[in-house]
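Tutorial, part two.
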Amino acid sequence: MNEQTEDNKNNNTEPGRKRQRRWGMGSFIVIFLFFVLIVYSQHEVVNTIDCSPQIIASKPDVIMLGAWWCSYCYRAKKYFQQNNIHYCEYDMENTDIGKQLYQKHGAGGVPILLIGEYQLNGFSEQQVETALTLLKENSTISN
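Running the prediction step on this input gives:
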């Protein structure tokens, strides 16, 4: 009888251990998802202005080649909107023109910012301001 009792104890404890492990992993996943939700809920909503033929015809100051998952693209869009910089974006993964331009400009990352004749790889407020200033100076000289 003692042997059966020992076997029952062993059989009962093994599933209990598995349940504890599953609960531990499940708890980790729930906590991780909660953390991700908190982080993403703190982002301001920033509109994406897609490069349509009408917008391109209006000659935006900046054409951005970006991706939805790119945090620097998000920062760039936020900066453009806060500073009233006329821009539009081609998604370099999901639009044919975006893919073509990305290949043409040959950068290894996103965003790529096209400001007149200047190409900026990555986002820097200072570089954007410098390129926009040079673009405006060059356009007043040529006029």
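Strands lie at 62-66, 87-91, 112-115, 118-121. In part three we will examine how such features are distributed along the chain.
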